[in-house]
Amino acid sequence: MPVRAGLPVARAGMTVGLLGGSFDPPHDGHVHITRQALRRFGLDRVWWLVSPGNPLKAEGPAEIGRRMAAARGLMRHPRVAVTDIEARMGTRYTAETVAGLRRLYPGVRFVWLMGSDNLESFHKWEQWEWLLQTVPVGVMARPGDRIAARCSIAAARYVNARLPAWKSRLLPEQSPPGWCFVNVPMVNSSSTEIRARGDWVR
Ligand SMILES: Nc1ncnc2c1ncn2[C@@H]1O[C@H](COP(=O)(O)OP(=O)(O)OP(=O)(O)O)[C@@H](O)[C@H]1O
Ligand SMILES: O=C(O)c1ccc[n+]([C@@H]2O[C@H](COP(=O)([O-])O)[C@@H](O)[C@H]2O)c1
């Protein structure tokens, strides 16, 4: 299948936030940070990248078709697309995905989005410094992880590249490296907790 088939459309000059995740299952925390990201980072679009599987997690997630269907059922917004881009491109590491998207969408300004728990472990990601030096990164507060994230290895190494929260709407225009932490109102949902309750069985 050509990679373009089934991929969202974006024009050169658009700003697109990428929210990668297992979405196993998707929940209102994902919806909440997506809406916050649109507003706080002044994005034209957000794309959910429903991952074939987090390379750092030993256990695989539920089948991707099921996670995609659940995500599409939950995330309804005219400027948000739920995608299986990584499965289509055959990528697993975020750096590979971002490199592929930049080739497929020349002129589109991508911003990598994540909750603060991911900033804490960001330095363990494949080619994380390349990623930070290639796309701006928008980080949103998540219960329990705000302080540790701001003291993380990545945050400390790139302290000079941090954009203050009051300038968050400038993030997409920022020449990398650039990242911004926004203290959004927090929603205390997690996929782990939903699975533990037995409300989603893999
Ligand atoms: N409640 C939340 N508040 C802020 N960010 C969140 C929240 N839930 C998920 N995220 C962020 O959304 C992205 C995708 O998260 P993911 O699909 O792993 O959900 P999760 O609830 O963290 O899942 P799990 O518990 O299985 O690790 C990550 O960047 C994560 O930090
Ligand atoms: O590229 C990596 O090394 C890497 C390591 C850990 C997580 N990620 C990405 O981070 C996103 C969030 O992952 P998860 O499993 O916490 O939802 C998802 O897009 C993963 O592919 C990427």
UniProtKB/TrEMBL annotation:
<comment type="similarity">
    <text>Belongs to the NadD family.</text>
</comment>
<comment type="function">
    <text>Catalyzes the reversible adenylation of nicotinate mononucleotide (NaMN) to nicotinic acid adenine dinucleotide (NaAD).</text>
</comment>
<dbReference type="InterPro" id="IPR014729">
    <property type="entry name" value="Rossmann-like_a/b/a_fold"/>
</dbReference>
<keyword id="KW-0662">Pyridine nucleotide biosynthesis</keyword>
<keyword id="KW-0067">ATP-binding</keyword>
<dbReference type="InterPro" id="IPR005248">
    <property type="entry name" value="NadD/NMNAT"/>
</dbReference>
<dbReference type="InterPro" id="IPR004821">
    <property type="entry name" value="Cyt_trans-like"/>
</dbReference>
<keyword id="KW-0547">Nucleotide-binding</keyword>
<dbReference type="GO" id="GO:0004515">
    <property type="term" value="F:nicotinate-nucleotide adenylyltransferase activity"/>
</dbReference>
<keyword id="KW-0520">NAD</keyword>
<dbReference type="Pfam" id="PF01467">
    <property type="entry name" value="CTP_transf_like"/>
</dbReference>
<protein>
    <recommendedName>
        <fullName>Probable nicotinate-nucleotide adenylyltransferase</fullName>
        <ecNumber>2.7.7.18</ecNumber>
    </recommendedName>
</protein>
<keyword id="KW-0808">Transferase</keyword>
<keyword id="KW-0548">Nucleotidyltransferase</keyword>
<dbReference type="GO" id="GO:0009435">
    <property type="term" value="P:NAD+ biosynthetic process"/>
</dbReference>
<dbReference type="GO" id="GO:0005524">
    <property type="term" value="F:ATP binding"/>
</dbReference>
<comment type="pathway">
    <text>Cofactor biosynthesis; NAD(+) biosynthesis; deamido-NAD(+) from nicotinate D-ribonucleotide: step 1/1.</text>
</comment>
<feature type="domain" description="Cytidyltransferase-like">
    <location>
        <begin position="18"/>
        <end position="197"/>
    </location>
</feature>
